[in-house]
Amino acid sequence: MNSDAPVAVEERLFSLVLALVSTEIGLTKAEILGAVQGYRQKFVPGGDNSSLERQFERDKDDIRELGVPLETLESPTDPGNNQALRYRIAKGDYDLPSDITFTPEETTLLNLAAMVWREGSLSGESRRALLKLRSLGTEGSKQLIGYAPRIRTRDAAFAPLTDALDRGVLVRFSYLKPGEQNARERTVAPTAVVQHQGRWYLQAIDQKADAPRTFLLSRIVGPVVATRAATPRPASPTAGDDALAELDQIWRTHVARVSVRPGTDAESRLGKRRGSIRHPDGTISLHYTDLALLADDLAAFGPEAVVISPPTLVDAVRERLLAVVASHSDAVDAV
């Protein structure tokens, strides 16, 4: 197995998008795992790559949730064979909509930004991966420079938490739960930091409750303070996989039903979420891990999406929309 340094999640996702944009015929899973930065370091030719394949499945879901139109193509000569599936990102689907225009000043600024991006958009690793893909007979597009997928960056708490995990020490931080006005200080023993559905989570042993808890990193407010106290027991080697399995179980058992307007952004994006099911009546069933996060996403679609169930999600979205109305009413009154 390759002993290269670990590849950051953002870099792996970017490399995957870049590779899939570069080909018109698509890439098989084997070609991706053996050549793309972030997978190839762990790929074992002819060996057991099941954990790497699961990582690829999660990455596919993550980039789709970011709005990247990843397609799956069946082999015309071997339909139904999952190993023969090809993946690609059609360039036309990743271009800006034709009705978006820019002023001359905006165009100048975009060109300046593109000049800066052009210098660093293809790292040495990315170039080598593309060369390897071409050596396999995959013809790539020449128009690669300038593609910048909207990849969510890590939360500020990520670095200090992973550092504390490596050192095996307790940490303190303030955590703001949904619906609460004030954050509460937590002292925990980190056991794993994982990414699930495009968001970062900490699994840890809460020292006050003496029980495992899962924290969303984006709800940690203020700095993460590492203590000098060692964790009571070392983290299990399978802690990361266990945390993801737990989050997946929550995701599978929580389902919402949403009515969407045809032809809207809500229909397109919600219909592409992992595990979404489109129903004949125009509604979509969605799995979710965190009700508050889903409520934030659905409220952002405004009238394009109407929640049908569960009732708790209906109430959560209504609260957010009423808060928006109230804030705009206050702004009008102040004028």
From TrEMBL:
Pfam families: WCX, WYL
Top-level lineage group: Bacteria
PROSITE patterns, per the entry: WYL
Gene Ontology, cellular component aspect: proteasome complex
Keyword set, alphabetical order: Proteasome
Residue ranges of every copy of the WYL domain listed in the record: 157-221
Positions of the WCX domain: 255-323
Listed InterPro entries: CBASS_pafABC_assoc_protein, WCX_dom, WYL_dom
Protein name: Proteasome accessory factor B
Organism: Agreia pratensis
